[in-house]
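Ops channel
N.P.: pipeline sanity check, posting one input/output pair.
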């Protein structure tokens, strides 16, 4: 039991150090660094809470999504909706998906659908013989254009999908909003 705890703490500290390093590298000042780093740590902390409640076994994707969307999903009218089958994810996938969705939500609040009055996010997922596919769709923007450069969040999302999840992702910049999807094969076992 102590060995497992030690292993998890070491992994967590490695993740935190990586997040700190990459956030610092992409921040122009300490004032930029602090909220970005704090938000990422809070997302990681929430994922750990969900995993702890599930005794570090498989955890519900729906629980993760509900926590992320929070009041955006319960507003009248809702600013975000989610739809997908009940699926349980391995702890490593919970952490990765949590960080991906946090970055998407942060970008939506700053630049995307949640930065405009009538913007909306639709989050959906499906499972088939190829694995799990998750789609993030933002609408309600006008004349959205693809950014000239990729920010840290976008790079982190792409790296996490490719390296942590061993999956694929697609980004489509539409005039009325962003469409982002990613797919991976959930593993079994711890």
């Amino acid at each position: 039991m102590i060995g497992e705890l030690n292993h998890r703490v070491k992994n967590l500290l490695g993740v935190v150090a990586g997040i700190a390093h990459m956030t610092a590298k992409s921040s122009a000042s300490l004032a930029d660094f602090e909220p970005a780093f704090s938000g990422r740590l809070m997302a990681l902390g929430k994922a750990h809470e969900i995993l702890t409640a599930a005794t570090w076994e498989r955890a519900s994707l729906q629980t993760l999504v509900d926590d992320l969307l929070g009041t955006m999903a319960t507003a009248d009218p809702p600013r975000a909706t989610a739809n997908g089958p009940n699926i349980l994810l391995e702890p490593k996938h919970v952490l990765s998906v949590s960080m991906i969705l946090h970055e998407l939500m942060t970008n939506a609040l700053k630049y995307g659908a949640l930065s405009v009055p009538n913007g909306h996010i639709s989050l959906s997922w499906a499972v088939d013989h190829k694995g799990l596919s998750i789609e993030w769709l933002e609408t309600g923007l006008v004349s959205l254009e693809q950014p000239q450069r990729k920010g840290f969040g976008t790079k982190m999302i792409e790296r996490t999908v490719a390296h942590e999840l061993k999956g694929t992702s697609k980004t489509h910049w539409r005039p009325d909003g962003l469409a982002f999807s990613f797919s991976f094969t959930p593993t079994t076992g711890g």
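N.P.: looks fine end to end. DSSP finds six helices and seven strands in the chain.
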